[in-house]
Amino acid sequence: MIAETVCSAVSAAGLGIAAVTAYRKRFLAAARIAAYSLVPIGLVMTGVVEWAADTAFSVTAWAGFGVLGAAWLLFSATRAVERRRGGTRKERKAARSAQREAVAPAASAPSLGQGTRPAPRPAATPRSGAADDFSDIEAILKKHGI
Predict the structure, then answer these.
(1) How far is the C-alpha of 58 from the C-alpha of 47, rounded, in Å?
(2) How far apart are CA 120 and CA 87, in angstroms?
(3) In this model, does residue 78 exceed pLDDT 80?
(4) What is the pLDDT of residues 55-77, one digit of tens each?
(5) Could you give the CA distance from residue 141 to residue 146 in angstroms, rounded to a whole number?
(6) Phi then psi for 69, rounded to 5 degrees?
(7) Distance (Å, whole) CA 46 – CA 125
(8) Cα–Cα distances in angstroms (integers) from residue 47 to residues 14, 38, 62, 77, in the given order
């Protein structure tokens, strides 16, 4: 009952503002304000406000919202896992069959070609005094094969 009173007061105030706006010869803005101010009273008259108030104070309705939230979480989690795996079941099946076709029937290793390694870089020639500063670093890098 309080919600209906508040909605009626908001509509009356909006219609008053629309009247003042129309008096200032801004008829388009006044019509828009009047339209917005009629929405709350229309919601009261159709019963939406009463339904919303009943829903807001209903334990069953809040439990339903909780179930909907859990369903949304499950759906989003399964979508995230599906994306990490590489798509749908049909896409994974196609990828597996393509992988089997990449290997020749009598071969023991995939026939995809030789693996490529980056070519080793030639050793840089030391220039001047700056190269002496980095000799320790170069020795460590050579020791690790970099």
Answers:
(1) 17
(2) 38
(3) yes
(4) 888 888 889 889 999 999 999 99
(5) 5
(6) -65, -40
(7) 88
(8) 20, 15, 20, 38
Whether the CB-CB separation of 85 and 92 falls below 8 Å is answered with: yes
C-beta of residue 8 within 8 angstroms of C-beta of residue 44: yes
- Angle at Cα 45 formed by Cα 44 and Cα 51, nearest 5°? 55
Read off the tokens for 82.
């599906």
**Which token pair is 29?**
């803005």
Say how far apart CA 78 and CA 10 lie, in whole Å.
45
Q: What is the DSSP letter of 57?
A: T
What pTM, to 2 d.p., does this model score? 0.44
Q: Is the pLDDT of residue 92 over 80?
A: no
pLDDT over 70 at 12, yes or no = yes
Residue pointed to by tokens 């508040």: 6
pLDDT of residue 15: 95
CB 62 within 8 A of CB 28: no
Which pLDDT score, from 0 to 100, does residue 74 have? 92
CA dist., res. 25 & res. 113, Å (int)? 81
